[in-house]
Amino acid sequence: MIDSILLVDDEDLFHLVFEDSCSLLDITLSLQSLTSSDEADKLFKKWFQEGPVEEKPDCVFVDLNIIGSSFDGIELIRKINFEYGNGVVIGIISSSDDKQEIEKAKSVGAQFWIIKSDEIEPRLEAFRKDYDVYKNKTAAFKVYK
Amino acid sequence: MISFGKDIESDLIALYKSKKIGLEGNLLKVIKTTNKEFQQYLEEAKTKDQETRRKRLEVTKQVQSQNKDLIEGQAEKEKLMLELKEALAESEKLREVAVDDLETLQKKTQFELIGLIVKVALGAVSAICILTTILYLYVLSKGLDSKIIESTWSNMFGIILTNCFSIIGTIMGVKHITDSKESKESKK
């Protein structure tokens, strides 16, 4: 089980879907959901400045296009990985499967790409199984279709 | 993991039995107990919580799907509206062209009619002039009484000259008004 997860997605309904799916699949006990990349950026900046903190999540799921934010999910991953220290398992969760965007995400250090759809549970289940290798940073980038 | 005292466990079980109020959510996954009755309580509460979540997940997915359809429908509607506006603008342009063509055709017909009237009138005037002149010349050559024909001939030329200038003036005036109208319309 993953200790804590942070979801950054502008769609409130998806927060509910994600929360219920994680609970039913026993993926995590602690889930925090944010609707903008700016909020996430502020939090990571704070955690980076304050040093190791318990609040910091173990795993971050970021949407690709976050409406109402100053920058998209790929830029957020770049900031988290290159500006605020790379201490989390991080990847994209999006309905897009654009190859160029996937390559961009890979280049900024995303570890996975989960494609959102009506049946998200099997993908989350598969991700849960692979989580340990992501945590050890030994897994190659993977797209969950 | 956390554990409750026996009193709390009993109170929670009693509350569940009497009011059907139980613990919910991820809290259930971190409670540890050796009390078999409370273990059963936790299992029941977990099952109930999972059922509730499953239902909510289903409903949320339905709403999400409906929202997606609505957004797609809205986008389709906007696209159709745009196409409709473009078609309307195109038909408006075609209508204007057709109206212009009709006006041109009407003007052409009018000009043709005026031309015909002018030709007939000129023919009649010329014929009378020639006839009167021939008659006048004949009277002069024969030495007949030319008083009446002389005055008729000079009056007729006077009237014809006056009318010619009047006609020229009218035609110039009409042409000027037509040109002004056309330039105003093209400016619009």
Would you give an account of this structure?
Chain A has 145 residues and is an alpha/beta fold. Chain A has a single domain, classed as Rossmann fold (3-Layer(aba) Sandwich), CATH 3.40.50. Chain A contains 5 helices and 6 strands, in the order βαβαβαβαβαβ. Chain A has helices at residues 12-24, 37-50, 73-82, 99-107, 121-135, and strands at 2-8, 28-34, 59-62, 89-94, 112-115, 142-144. Chain A has a 6-stranded parallel beta sheet with strand order 2-1-3-4-5-6, with helices on both faces. In chain A, helix 2 packs parallel to helix 3. The longest helix of chain A is centred in the last third of the chain and has 15 residues, at 121-135. Chain A is globular, with a radius of gyration of 14 Å. Chain A starts with a strand and ends with a strand. Chain B has 188 residues and is mainly alpha-helical. Chain B has one domain (6-144). Chain B contains 3 helices and no strands. Chain B has helices spanning 6-19, 36-142, 147-187. The longest helix of chain B is centred in the middle third of the chain and has 107 residues, at 36-142. Chain B starts with 5 loop residues before the first helix and ends with a helix. Chain A binds chain B through residues 11, 13-14, 16-17, 20-21, 23-24, 26, 29-30, 118, and chain B through 25-26, 29-30, 49-50, 53-54, 56-57, 60-61, 63-65, 67.
Task: Tell me the distance between the termini of chain A.
Answer: 22 Å
Low-confidence stretches of chain A: none
Task: Give me the CATH fold name of chain A.
Answer: Rossmann fold
Oligomer: heterodimer
The best one-word shape of chain B is: rod-shaped
- Architecture of chain A in CATH? 3-Layer(aba) Sandwich
Would you state the CATH class of chain A? Alpha Beta
Helix content of chain A: 40-55%
Give the distance, in angstroms, between the N- and C-terminal Cα atoms of chain B: 83 Å
Query: What letter string, H or E per element, gives the SSE order of chain A?
Result: EHEHEHEHEHE
Structural class of chain A: alpha/beta
Enumerate the strands of the largest sheet of chain A in spatial order, edge to edge or round the barrel: 2-1-3-4-5-6
Shape of chain A: globular
Tally of extended strands of chain A?
Answer: 6
Number of helices of chain B: 3
Binned strand content of chain A: 15-25%
For the CA atoms, what is the radius of gyration of chain B?
Answer: 53 Å
Give the percentage of residues in beta strands of chain B.
under 5%
Order of helices and strands of chain B: HHH
Major sheet description of chain A:
6 strands, parallel
Count of separate structural domains of chain B: 1
